[in-house]
Specification:
alpha+beta; two-stranded antiparallel ribbon; 51% helix
Length: 264
Amino acid sequence: MPGIIQLGPLVIASDRLLALALIMAFLFGFDRIAARFGLQARTGGLALAGGIVAARLAYVLAHYDAFAQDWASVLAIWEGGFSGPAGFLGAAAIIAWRVRHRVALLRSLAMLGALAALWFAGSSLLSPAPRPMPDLPQMVHLEGRPFDPSALEGQPYVMNLWATWCPPCRRELPMLAQEAARTDVPILLVSQGEDAGTVQAYLERQGISGEAVLLDDASGLSLVVGSTALPTTVFVDARGRIVETQFGQLSRAALADGLARIMD
């Protein structure tokens, strides 16, 4: 599946793996500079922490309306949602504040700039190009009525692949059902490999509407989109192309970003 790296049973989003590699490179590189010029090594950790906070804060402010509906989600950093430019600027500001040695400062900022360039180039390369959405498998509505794929032709839509046994699916499902009920873009919540009784019982226990839920008891959608893990959210534009695929728990802000892309 584009956008992820699978190591046996472990599935990691490729952009997050790149971010982790660059964080480790920054800490190692700053540690070498600190040892060479007699700087406090903890400055690297402070710059990293400051950069992460700045990146998260900038993202939250840019998606104020989404986070205002659930301020606790600001702390859910495992869902992603960071501003790269703000993060690098935040880290640079702390380095400039803490490092007084001119040569060490220049080397530190040059290293940070090189890592920033690698991040923007790498994340662009790792972002898959739009591709045609394959023919959809046979699916049914929760009450058993067959789903007609032709109803989606010529308009953007979102498909979320989930299951009742999947913890991150259960966490994002209430938000997705709520957004599906009020957006003009169809958001379809496609249960993978479970029968109507199991899904219906779960939705009733949780007080979640099943209006946007579809049943795919053969997990055919996972096969056609190449999903290797749940949850997976696929954003399809009006031309029938998959323009973005998000792996893992989806935040309200990330959903808004994806919707904006397919509505352009």
